[in-house]
Amino acid sequence: MVDSADTARTEEAKSELEAILLEEDLKNVPLMVFANKPYLTFALSAQEIAEKLTLDSIKERKWSICACSAFTKEGIQEGMEWLVNNLKEEKA
After folding, report:
1. Domain of residue 71, CATH code
2. Cys staple from 67: which of 10, 16, 46, 51, with CB 3.0 to 4.6 Å?
3. pLDDT tens per residue, range 63-84
4. Structure pTM?
C-alpha cells in the first residue's frame, strides 16, 4: 500500500518494492499495489504512482494498481478480487 499523498516517500516505497521483487519465494507471484488516499488534494493518481514505482518495467509477473481508501474501504474489494483471481491462475 502506498500513500498517494505522501510524495516524499515515493522513492522509499520504490526501493522497498524492488527489494520485495527480488525475494526468491515471491518469484512470479502477482503484485497488487493499493494507492491509498486518492481523494486528498495533493494525492498522485494511481497512474502517476505506477510511473514513479516504474511498474511498467515489471515483466516477470502480473501486476495491477488500484486507488483505494483504507478509511472507507473503497477500492479494496476490487483490488483483492484481482489478486485472488490472478493467484488462482498461477496455481492452475
Report:
1. 3.40.50.300
2. 46
3. 999 999 999 999 999 999 999 9
4. 0.91
Q: Using a CB cutoff of 8 Å and minimum separation of 24, what contacts does 38-41 make?
A: 38/4, 38/67, 38/68, 38/69, 39/69, 40/4, 40/5, 41/5
**Residue 42 belongs to what domain range?**
2-91
Contact (Cβ atoms closer than 8 angstroms) between residue 55 and residue 67: no
d(Cα 5, Cα 45) in Å, to the nearest integer? 9
Among 7, 35, 66, 10, CA closest to 18: 10
Cell numbers 511498467 label which residue?
56
Average pLDDT of the residues of the chain = 94
